[in-house]
Amino acid sequence: MLKTLIYKELKMIIASPKFTATFGTCAVLILLSIFIGIQEYRGAVRQYETAVQLNDQEMAESTSWGSFDTRVFRQPDPMQIFVSGIHYDVGRMTGISRWEEIKLRRSNYSDDPIFAVFRFIDFTFIVQIALSLLAILFTYDAINGEREQGTLKLTFANPVPKVTYILSKFIGAWLGLVIPLLIPILIGLLLVMLYNLPLTGVHWAKIITMLGFSLLFFTFFIAFGLMVSALTRSSSSSFLILLVAWVTLVLIIPRAGVMLAGQVQSVPTVAEIESKHAKFSQERWDQHSALISERYEKRNAAMEGLSPEDREAYEEEKMWSWMEEDDAEMKNVQADISEYGRKLQEDLRNRRAAQEKLAFLLSRVSPASAYQLAMMNLAATDINLKNRYEDAMRDYRTAFNGFVNKKLEDSGQHGGFRISISSETGVNIDTGDIDTKSLDLSEVPRFEDPRHSYSAAITPAMTDLALLIFFTLIAFAGAFSGFIRYDVR
Amino acid sequence: MTTPENTPETIQPMMATRNLSKRYEDGVLALDSLDLSVNPGQIYAMLGGNGAGKTTTINLFLNFIDPTEGEAIVDGIITHQEPLKAKAKIAYVSENVMLYPNFTALQNLDYFSHLGGKTSYSAEDYQKVLLRVGLQEEAHDKKLRSYSKGMRQKCGIAIAILKDAPAILLDEPTSGLDPKAGMEFINLLQDLRDEGKAILMSTHDIFRAKQVADIVGIMNAGKLVAEKQREELVGEDLEKLYVEYMTGYMDTAVQATDASVTVG
What we know:
The complex is a heterodimer. Chain A is mainly α. Helix content of chain A is 71%, strand content 4%. The two termini of chain A are 21 Å apart. Chain B folds into two domains: 15-89 and 167-263, 3-Layer(aba) Sandwich (Rossmann fold); 97-164. Chain B is built from nine helices and ten strands. In chain B, α3 (105-115) runs parallel beside α5 (149-163) and α4 crosses α5. The longest helix of chain B has 26 residues, at 238-263. Chain B is globular, with a radius of gyration of 19 Å. The model of chain B is unreliable at 1-6 and 253-264 (pLDDT under 50). The interface between A and B is medium-sized, with 23 and 32 residues.
């Protein structure tokens, strides 16, 4: 019985003209998105390699550890082909030096704003928008359409249990839509293999999990469509209800959740943070200037009454210790400013985290949000992408600066310079013992992209998995209970 | 209620109703204490206007709705207690047979035969039945969306025949059939009766009812107001009888209304 009913469902779906049209569109969309994604990724890799090469070249031309700095770049990840997430919005590089704070700059969209206008359509977008609509299109009249057509009455004039029937509707629609859609997906994956992209075992595990999530999301919409169809008498009503529900679930709730969280949990803007930082910095430098002035006065007072020769000799004797004293004070100021900046950033990050938590909590009312967040987590293009990179870059900055400082000490350089003005020798700039030869860069620490393991990807996605299963079960239970009470006449 | 050869003591009715009543949620009493029975090899025609309770009776047999009181019984099975068992014994043809428009006649027959529990039929079996109901061979492989109402009706009858159920329910089966097709249908019904099927049909068609029915029940406002055996109808003008019963009811109804107006 179940087999007969499922077989009929499959035949009905595949024989319907709307199937040819929608399946064709979705297949083309999936293949195009994967193909364009591959091209984008390869372009990004070329750009990344060129940038790294150029940076290496610039480092190789450096002759002083005192002025030695570098840049690090975010390496493109093949997972961005399937889920671009915030990949295109996050900056791709930062400068690494003793003076510069870590800040990812030059995102794809800031470099090429035109692409931000019509954003890249990735696999997640297709599943979230196109395939969910496809599921609705094939299920909105699954029950009430048969009633309107008169076939439901004839079917239930036979010994057909309602449970078997609703199950067959669900399985039939699922198989009828999923199997044909797996074809372009598999061709897309074949394309990925043909292009010989650097996909590791972890990548493949993530891709398979992502497919599982996509199927679950699609399954939700099939069950949801069935539910609405089993709770309404006419197919026009169910279509309208589903359309409104789709707009609400896919387009409104995810955005409304974020906007509401923005209102409830305020987060200072980058400009506000920078302004606070600049103000503190100004105050600190003012204090420093006052201290230096005071110190100069003391030093001058100590030299009062000395003859010019003694004064010069005294100055010559004290100069380096004064410089070191001043330098230490300056470093204190820099450290204070840096610490204040770090605290501001930490506060910003905590507030952002609280806002994100609230936003995700609110938006996860929609399975579309749960699906998108899970996919972004799996592909490592999630909201934490920037933090992960900035943390790794900060760690690298510490290692890099430590290395440079050690080199400075070893080479006897101090990293600063001394300007002396004399009526006899004129202006002199002393930078210490600068070696004009190229530096040995073999031991310079290299930046390694933060690793994103499978467990790091799946752990945050477990909540979304549970939610998607919950939503699907609720929708199926709704379809089931609605149909058990359904008047087939 | 019985054929001349059989007596109530020896024959168990294939279809029967006992004090069957249905009151809908809006308070309308669609069926009021109906008692009827149809034996194997009998055709029972329910005559009546719209809202008489004919279709409600059929829906109760098919357990599409639950009775408020009483029971509908098929081959000893109370339909609302064991609906699946009961449905296995019933073949049904609706007033306006609607099948799957994207399937051919053969595909529709195959699907509904499987639902009816008949899984061993071959394409030849389907074709034979389609020819038997008068559907030309060239139409067998055509999709149902190109079929006329009469052709769909024939398909529906073919499905009922293929189910080979001992009880057949027909809801206005001749509606939409041309005179020739109507005649063929009557012949087919007679064949089925001769095969021992118990047939309960609702109809407005007094002529066909008189022609084919062993028992004619006249229904009005949910009640069985008259029941006539075939032999009782010999020489009777069924149309006159039908109008009399209907008018009688109408008169009663009008009188009741007048009385209430006077009182009020």
